[in-house]
Amino acid sequence: MVMVNGEQESGVIGQTIAEFLKQRNAPIDNIVVEQNGTIVHRSEFDTTKIGENDKLELISFVGGG
């Protein structure tokens, strides 16, 4: 099972971070992904795979004023 922002997520093991974000319609240009306590650099989204028992934190930046 994979935890995403503290909630269980199924069916994502083996996906790359890029595939996972696209599936969620996440704003790839404005998001930071932490996998098991380590920041995943945007250049690694296409090659970094989600594994069993991973913990992902997704942080989106939103502009405003």
UniProtKB/TrEMBL annotation:
Q: Which CDD domains match?
A: Ubl_ThiS
The protein's superkingdom reads Bacteria
What Pfam families does the annotation carry?
ThiS (PF02597)
Q: Where are the transmembrane segments?
A: none
The record's PANTHER family line, in alphabetical order, gives: SULFUR CARRIER PROTEIN THIS
Which protein are we looking at?
Thiamine biosynthesis protein ThiS
Which species? Lentilactobacillus fungorum
